[in-house]
Amino acid sequence: EVELVESGGGMVQPGGSLRLSCTASGFRFSNYYMIWLRQAPGKGPERVSAITTDGRTYYADSVKGRFTISRDDAKSRVYLQADSLKPEDTALYYCARLTLFVSLDSLQIDNRGQGTQVTVSS
Question: What is the average pLDDT across 25-52?
Fold first, then answer.
């Protein structure tokens, strides 16, 4: 059974940092592209960042230069380092397994985690 479990969320002040983790199980992690998404209250999901099996990375314009995605295949984990956080980054962040990826505008996912809440507030 595929399982994705996120951790690392919390409340931070504007300008602060968080490192989100997603631990995968139930499948060969190294064979899959992975993605982080987020959803703020009252809004639809936003595709934040994706990483390929060979480490190529993609970012939404809203987080480019502030967030960094990485992966550790030995630990079956994908990370999202979020720096210079802004109040508009407040959302539920979740990871997902990609089954198709052309770009952040063209992709398919088949499993996602429950998410970890990030709140940026003074």
Answer: 97
